[in-house]
Amino acid sequence: MTKDSPGPPGGGTSWRKAAVIALPALVAVAAMGVAMADGVLASSFAVSGSAFQVSAGELTSDGLASFAQLDRSADGTQHPAALLGIGDATLSDFCQSSRFTTPVGTVVFKLTAGGDAGKITASDLVLDGEDLVGDAHLGTVELGRDASTLDRVPGLRGAPGQFGLQASQVTVSGVKSHARSATGGNFRLKGLKLDVSLDGKACF
User: Fold this and answer.
1) CB atoms within 10 A of CB 110
2) Does residue 201 form part of some domain?
């Protein structure tokens, strides 16, 4: 597997209220059940049975790559997801939350970072998402590229013949996603706060 560096930024293309273009299409082809490339952390573990919320005021990165896959929970259930790989990411106002039922009521697990403490950073960020919405600006875009030839995010490739997309640069504001898993090689969370409460407020 080669580890090519992201290429230089190209001409910009803007979409308003975009789901990082064609994510619904990626989810639709997830039934192909393609194996993930070596070196990718996401889905190297069994995911939980329910999706969680992830939001950020803004996300920026010099590279993006995406293709569809099937996540598997501990009971063997498969969940279609769009794998979204981002090289070195910078995020503001990060939030992650999940709900689960207990004998005393619904408990909300919530983790926040950034805000007044400053932006947070993550390297080799991989998100397995059911959806993703926000205001997006993408650099040079390649839509429909064979997933086995993706090279914008080192180490992130799909199987030959699989639908893929990539972009040289990405900036998304108002990020909201329902995800199955999120992994990163090195997270730096400024102003980290963890809160667990009954009937608490989720990220969105």
Assistant:
1) 20
2) no
Task: Answer whether 80's CB lies under 8 Å from 68's CB.
Answer: yes
Q: Is residue 67 part of a domain?
A: yes
For residue 35, give both structure tokens.
């194996």
Does residue 193 lie in a domain region?
no
* Predicted pLDDT at 47: 53
Name the residue with tokens 């932006």.
119
Specify the number of domains making up the chain. 1
Residue (of 129, 125, 133, 108) closest to 181 by Cα position: 129
Are 76 and 160 in contact by the 8 Å Cβ rule? The answer is no
Does residue 180 fall inside a structural domain?
Answer: yes
Please name the residue that has the structure tokens 């952390």.
41
Domain of residue 180, residue span: 13-38+51-96+117-184
93: tokens are: 């106002």
pLDDT, tens digit, 9 for 90 and up, residues 17-68: 333 433 433 333 332 323 333 333 334 445 565 789 999 999 999 899 999 9
Query: Maximum Cα–Cα distance for the chain, whole Å?
Result: 55
**Amino acid making up residue 143:** L
The first and second tokens of residue 50, run together, are 């329910």
Pairing of strands 186-188, 120-138: antiparallel
Is the pTM here over 0.85, yes or no? no
Residue whose C-alpha is closest to residue 158's, from 68, 70, 86: 68
Question: How many Å apart are CA 68 and CA 65, to the nearest integer?
Answer: 11
